Amino acid sequence: MAAVFAVVIPLLVVGSLSGGDEGPPPAPGGVTDQATFYTVREGQSEAQVRARLGTPPREVVPVARPGGAADCWVYGRRSGARGEYRFCFRDGFLAAKVRA
Asked: What is the pTM (predicted TM-score) of this model?
């Protein structure tokens, strides 16, 4: 039994020193998922959408759209799949959202 403790105790100490008890890493910024994409509604304010998405976008892209220019927030897919989600705002409110 003593040999088992000699091996186990150093492993536990090393694990706690390396931060193993800190829990999972935070979700990366600029990503969202399909379920969240569908809960965001056109007409919501930028603040409401940001609160729902939680993290800042990967990038903001100005886009010329019929009826005026819009700024589109670009988010990657949390799953890592190809494609992106775009949330386009005009005058501070969500005018369109696109899954590309």
From this structure: 0.69
Specify the amino acid at residue 75.
Y
Bridge pairing between strands 59-65 and 31-32: unpaired
Contact 88, 95 (CB under 8 A): yes
- 32: containing domain: 26-99
For 58, residues 6+ apart whose C-beta sits below 8 A from its C-beta are: 29, 30, 31, 74, 75, 76, 84
Specify whether the CB–CB gap between 44 and 53 falls below 8 A.
Answer: no
Residue type, 57: P
Q: What is the CATH number of the domain that holds 86?
A: 3.30.1450.10
Per residue in 9-48, pLDDT (tens digit) is 443 334 444 455 554 455 567 999 999 999 999 999 999 9
